[in-house]
């Protein structure tokens, strides 16, 4: 699937990874690609194997005009909520760009204005536009690497495999071992938490 560029030669694509996880940060990335950049493998990071994402990461880092990565950690997620944390992460990753974009392309339907730069929210943008797909790959690979690192501290949750998502295995480990400092305390960690106590 060949994705396209948008209107401007220096559009910035931005996306996040880990929004639905029970543990770990939400990680955002922003990237500006060269005008004629092409890569036939690039797609929405969720459609790519981990092997392909890991292959594309150094290519994007080398070929990008500029890129930025930001982790927003659990305490901040619990304080400002996951939507605001996701948008904040995108803003902080755009802060790191060495070149000011003329347009910001955002995956999804929610964003807050960034400085005076126009932005467009595009639902499933990571499967439509190169710059958003590239940002999704960087966000996912950087977050996965972080989750593998903290897996070594708490191997019983198997974050190296589930990356903090609410898998059956992860939830069973929470039942057995409880929560860690990396878990998002504002998230419903277990299905039975929905029961009310009177």
Automatic annotation (TrEMBL):
EC number(s) given by UniProt: 3.1.26.4
InterPro entries registered for this protein in UniProt: RNase_HII, RNase_HII/HIII, RNase_HII/HIII_dom, RNaseH-like_sf, RNaseH_sf
Residues annotated to bind a divalent metal cation: 15-16, 107
Reaction it catalyzes: Endonucleolytic cleavage to 5'-phosphomonoester
Top-level EC class: hydrolase
Residue span, RNase H type-2 domain: 9-198
GO molecular function, one term: RNA-DNA hybrid ribonuclease activity
Cofactor: Mn(2+); Mg(2+)
Source organism superkingdom: Bacteria
Localization of this protein: Cytoplasm
Co-factor note (free text): Manganese or magnesium. Binds 1 divalent metal ion per monomer in the absence of substrate. May bind a second metal ion after substrate binding.
Keywords for this protein: Cytoplasm, Endonuclease, Hydrolase, Manganese, Metal-binding, Nuclease
UniProt xrefs under Pfam families: RNase_HII (PF01351)
Annotated HAMAP family: RNase_HII_B
Purpose: Endonuclease that specifically degrades the RNA of RNA-DNA hybrids.
Family recorded in the similarity comment: Belongs to the RNase HII family.
Identification of the protein by name: Ribonuclease HII
Organism: Croceitalea vernalis
Classification of source organism: Bacteria, Pseudomonadati, Bacteroidota, Flavobacteriia, Flavobacteriales
Primary gene name: rnhB
């Amino acid at each position: 699937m060949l994705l396209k560029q948008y209107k401007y030669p220096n559009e910035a694509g931005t996306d996040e990874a880990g929004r639905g996880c029970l543990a770990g940060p939400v990680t955002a990335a922003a990237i500006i690609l060269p005008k004629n950049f092409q890569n036939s493998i690039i797609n929405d990071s969720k459609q790519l194997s981990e092997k392909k994402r890991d292959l594309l990461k150094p290519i994007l880092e080398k070929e990008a005009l500029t890129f930025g990565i930001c982790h927003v950690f659990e305490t901040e997620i619990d304080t400002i909520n996951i939507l605001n944390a996701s948008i904040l992460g995108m803003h902080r990753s755009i802060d790191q760009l060495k070149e000011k974009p003329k347009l910001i392309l955002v995956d999804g339907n929610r964003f807050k204005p960034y400085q005076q730069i126009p932005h467009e929210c595009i639902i499933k943008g990571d499967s439509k536009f190169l710059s958003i797909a590239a940002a999704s790959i960087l966000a996912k690979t950087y977050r996965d690497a972080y989750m593998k690192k903290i897996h070594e501290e708490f191997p019983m949750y198997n974050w190296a495999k589930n990356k903090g998502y609410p898998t059956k295995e992860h939830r069973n480990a929470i039942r057995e071992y409880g929560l860690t400092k990396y878990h998002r305390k504002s998230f419903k960690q277990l299905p039975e938490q929905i029961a009310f106590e009177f």
